[in-house]
Design brief:
CATH superfamily of one domain: NAD(P)-binding Rossmann-like Domain
CATH class of one domain: Alpha Beta
Low-confidence stretches: 317-330, 432-476
Mean pLDDT: 81
Structural class: alpha/beta
Bound molecules: NADP nicotinamide-adenine-dinucleotide phosphate
Number of helices: 16
Helix content: 25-40%
Strand order of the largest sheet: 3-2-1-4-5-6-9
Distance between the termini: 9 Å
Strand content: 5-15%
Length: 476
């Protein structure tokens, strides 16, 4: 891989990474260890190395070996909820001496915590790390992962990369009040205690450590990765819209009530979701450039979906024949190489013209069951009839596999009504309540439509287009 000159600086970086067993942290770890020439990576883990290794293996099984082989990892046992993170003297000495870049991605992202728990998990640890980092002799940059929702108290409109004051209360007084009484009058202005805790963290970091080389990264919602460490990487528990989709379909009551934002009749607010690897890229590119201050990372420029859009998407049940358009032409063939050739059904003694007549009169033929979808039989029949009826026509028959959302044109992630087959399968999977709908995916796999080689749906390989995108624009 060719690195831009900016990223060569990682040759000189010794990184302290927290939260490396989480969604963003593991993606950053992969990039720092495998894609970048990072000198050394101290990974702060609260468990044993064996437990951390198992978490990485679960998150990114095929990338684990290359991470370990990079020989850049050095484990530091520590718990961010403890004073000085519970670090022993030797570890502290190493960090003070070596670390040039800190990326603090550890957090508790639960929205269910009360404000005291949220502050303990998402505000105090960052302040403690900043206190420790003030002693790091080689430090070039401290990257603190925050959230775009620190400003959830603002009305709709443009939000700048700056601090907005939620009230006249002094943040030190607010923190004391929360630690003493477990509450603050400001909390109700945020969408969750979590975002209030992050807001306080930002304000106190900037006020207490004005000379610290600090970058506050404010991502919107994490979405599945576009490329790294692999396509669609990301644990559901850290992808809020996946979790929301699950909660939405788990509601049995047909009357599902959601509260619109102030001034709106429905969910017209944008739920911005950005692939987690884009966030990692933004983080590392800014780190390479030693950006100080506040940085927003969102995806609205690419695809903008409102709450209403998501609800429509979750409710959408696309008829199977619509999902199947253009794919599954030869599900009756065994797994293996499929030539650019028109195959007959096994045992078929019916000529295509007779097959067409029978379908037109009876609505199906004995062969219909051999196909995953009626649409696939229709496409198969069309190919054969074109060849038979018009042998001299200069015709090209294009057989795409599954169409995926666009990479670039007419705009990134273009996907008409969310009907790319894997989007639809994903939606069906999300909509599954343990009942029948998920079985349709298994059935597809058993039929070989997903090119399944072992009979187990988990090993099905699914081809989508376009496959040759070089990801240059978002590649590190
Ligand atoms: N997910 C989102 O949509 C989203 C959106 C905006 C901002 N963010 C922010 O982005 C950052 C990363 O989020 P994420 O979704 O990747 O989080 P995540 O998947 O929940 O991972 C959290 C990480 O923090 C570690 N951790 C938690 N408590 C710890 C403790 N007491 N001591 C040491 N390590 C501890 C966890 O380690 P264990 O494996 O030991 O539990 C894990 O590695 C967070 O600051 C979060 O607030 C997230």
């Amino acid at each position: 891989m060719t690195l831009g000159p900016a990223l060569e600086v990682f040759k000189n970086h010794t990184v302290l990474l927290t939260g490396s067993t989480g969604a963003l942290g593991a993606c950053l770890l992969y990039k720092l260890a495998v894609q970048l020439p990072t000198k050394k990576i101290y990974v702060l883990i609260r468990s044993t190395p064996d437990v951390a290794l198992q978490k990485w293996r679960d998150l990114m099984p095929d990338q684990m070996e290359s991470i370990i082989l990079s020989q850049k990892l050095h484990y530091i046992r520590g718990d961010i909820s403890q004073p000085s993170f519970g670090l022993d003297n030797l570890s502290m000495e190493k960090l003070c001496r070596d670390v040039t870049l800190i990326v603090n991605a550890a957090a508790d992202i639960s929205f269910a915590s009360n404000i005291l728990e949220a502050v303990r998990a998402n505000c105090l640890p960052a302040l403690e790390l900043a206190r420790l980092a003030s002693e790091f002799s080689s430090l070039k940059l401290f990257v603190q992962i925050s959230t775009a929702y620190v400003n959830s108290f603002l009305p709709d409109g443009e939000v700048e990369e700056k601090i907005y004051e939620v009230s006249d209360n002094d943040p030190e007084d607010v923190l004391s009040s929360i630690l003493d009484s477990g509450n603050s009058s400001d909390t109700a202005r945020f969408f969750s205690s979590y975002s209030h805790a992050k807001y306080l963290m930002e304000r106190l970091l900037l006020e207490r450590y004005p000379t610290l080389p600090l970058m506050l990264l404010r991502p919107t919602c994490f979405g599945p990765a576009l490329r790294d460490p692999y396509r669609l990487y990301g644990p559901d528990s850290s992808l809020p819209l996946n979790e929301f989709g699950k909660a939405f379909i788990a509601m049995r009551d047909p009357a599902q009530i959601f509260h619109a934002t102030e001034g709106s009749q429905s969910g017209t607010n944008v739920l911005d979701e950005i692939p987690v690897d884009f966030i990692a890229n933004a983080c590392l590119l800014h780190a390479a450039n030693e950006t100080y201050g506040i940085v927003h990372v969102g995806c609205e420029l690419y695809v903008s979906r409102t709450f209403d859009d998501f609800i429509d998407l979750y409710r959408l049940v696309v008829p199977p024949e619509k999902q199947a358009s253009g794919v599954g032409r030869y599900p009756f063939l065994p797994n293996g190489v499929v030539l650019e050739h028109c195959y007959d059904h096994p045992g078929s003694d019916q000529c295509p013209e007779n097959e067409l007549s029978q379908i037109l009169s009876d609505g199906s033929t004995s062969q219909t069951a051999a196909f995953a979808w009626p649409c696939a039989q229709a496409k198969h029949l069309a190919e054969r009839l074109i060849n038979i009826r018009h042998p001299d026509l200069p015709v090209m028959i294009l057989r795409p596999s599954f169409l995926g959302p666009a990479i670039q044109h007419p705009y990134p992630l273009y996907d008409v009504n969310g009907t790319s087959p894997l989007s639809v399968l994903g939606e069906i999977y999300l909509l599954d309540d343990g009942g029948n709908r998920f079985h349709s995916l298994e059935t597809l796999a058993k039929n070989g439509t997903l090119n399944n080689s072992s009979g187990s749906s988990a090993t099905a390989s699914v081809d989508t287009q376009p496959s040759s995108y070089n990801y240059r624009e978002n590649r590190l």
